[in-house]
Amino acid sequence: MPVNLKDLSAHLGLSPTTVSRALSGYSDVSPATRERVRQAAQELGYQPNRAARQVALGRADAVGIVYSPATEFLGNPSFLQMLEGLARTLDEAGCDLLLAAAPTEDELPIYDRMVRGRRVDALVVAHTLREDPRIRYLQDSGFPFVAYGRTARADGFPWFDFDNEACSRLAVQALVAAGHRMIAYVHAPLHYNFAFQRHAGFLAAMRKARLPVDPACVLAGSLERRAGYAAARQLLAMPAAQRPTAVVVDNNIGGIGMIRALLDAGLRLGHDMSLVVNEGIPEDTLFGGIEVAAVTQPTAFESGRSIGRMVRALVERQPLDEPHQLRQPAYVPGNSVGPPAPR
């Protein structure tokens, strides 16, 4: 006969609430008790009635993240690795990660349905904007969330982010060290906070190196591969004397398009043109032995685990040890960077 929560509680001499919270990994139950309950559940073959537990605890046992298929974010390996780390951490607490696709770039209707319908216990807001209506909505609603990124006003809510200005600084420093003086910059739309900060970091790094910034060599594009391809074609169409000898791309989606265009034009990366790509190029992208120099996150998987721990604490109504977590990027050399070609 199947063992239910009441049977397991009687066997352990604990209240059903304590047993339920122990099985859910709540930190207000001691590690020793959680382990004792877990072992007893395994020995007795207890399978929790998830629906009943959700009703009893008033929880959905799910965390949501909304994305728009209008962008290519799901084609970004770093984002997928972050999701893997996030999902793994939530699963350890018996919680699911729900991905909701917004039919347009306006994600607010999806947020509203998830919050009003209590479909999730918390949300992760990804790819934050300078002025982000999603965050304002969640703050006004009093709904738990963690932002994967900052906004123009990075206070009043928990977030996890990287030092985006440092990303561009590291890229410029590497190119200047290789001898480059004419450096182009290709960026995502500046309403994304990461793009705004990386753009500011590029301009600051160029000023510090006392190098001019040619407005014709600072190109905006969408978060699509074709945007990187179009930017490369635009740079290559410039007169040879004005053409940059190196390029920094602020995202790896556009970086893939940039590389494809340079190779299609017959250029040798690291010889005819040097290139640094933020977040790096996916390992399964076949570019004939090219090792693209990159500014990367130390590990996107661990970033996801950190976000997952923050979300779990919010769901469990525990204080956050670090409500604002800023990580530093690292420069990874590659053969896509070399000295400027003679002219």
TrEMBL record:
Residues 3-57 form the HTH lacI-type domain. Keywords: DNA-binding, Transcription, Transcription regulation. It holds the Pfam family Peripla_BP_1. Residues 322-343 are annotated as: Disordered. InterPro entries: HTH_LacI (IPR000843), Lambda_DNA-bd_dom_sf (IPR010982), Peripla_BP/Lac1_sug-bd_dom (IPR001761), Peripla_BP_I (IPR028082). SMART domains: HTH_LACI. PANTHER family: HTH-TYPE TRANSCRIPTIONAL REGULATOR GALS, LACI-RELATED TRANSCRIPTIONAL REPRESSOR. This is Transcriptional regulator AglR, LacI family. It comes from Piscinibacter sakaiensis.
